[in-house]
Design brief:
Elements lengths: L3 H25 L5 H27 L9 H17 L3 H25 L5 H21 L4
Length: 144
């Protein structure tokens, strides 16, 4: 049985996975260390797989996908390009992605609280996305 909170939480998770994939894509080509590139490629795959699962559920609920907030996307792009133009290093990439993970984790917890009656399986998907973000943030520490 679908409810409004379920669909809203799914849509926010959808936007989150898209934002993460876009951010990783923007930075992958700028990375020097192969192990960092491999880490980000793996994380991108995790985000993409979860995004595909979310898309399937949205279709089941006859709901549309949600794109990331255009302002957030623009600010992310601007910050990325500004910082990378000043310091084109893997440490800068790790710093930018750590900030992105922090913002994503904070937003996802906010949405979990905002949509408390979302179905348990959708809450679990949101928690899985939080776990992916937390793992990436932790793995990035050695590159800061």
């Amino acid at each position: 049985m679908e409810n409004k909170d379920t669909i809203c939480l799914l849509k926010e998770c959808d936007a989150g996975t898209k934002m993460a994939v876009t951010s990783i894509d923007e930075l992958l080509e700028k990375i020097e260390k192969p192990e960092l590139k491999q880490l980000l490629t793996k994380s991108k795959e995790h985000h993409t797989e979860l995004g595909n699962e979310i898309h399937s559920l949205l279709l089941e609920y006859h709901s549309e996908e949600k794109e990331p907030n255009p302002m957030a996307k623009s600010m992310s792009w601007f910050k990325t390009n500004m910082k990378m133009s000043m310091d084109h290093s893997d440490a800068t990439v790790a710093d930018l992605l750590t900030d992105g993970c922090n913002m994503g984790i904070k937003s996802l917890y906010k949405y979990l609280n905002q949509y408390p009656t979302a179905e348990k399986k959708v809450q679990n998907i949101c928690q899985k996305l939080i776990d992916i973000e937390e793992e990436l943030r932790r793995d990035l520490r050695k590159y800061l």
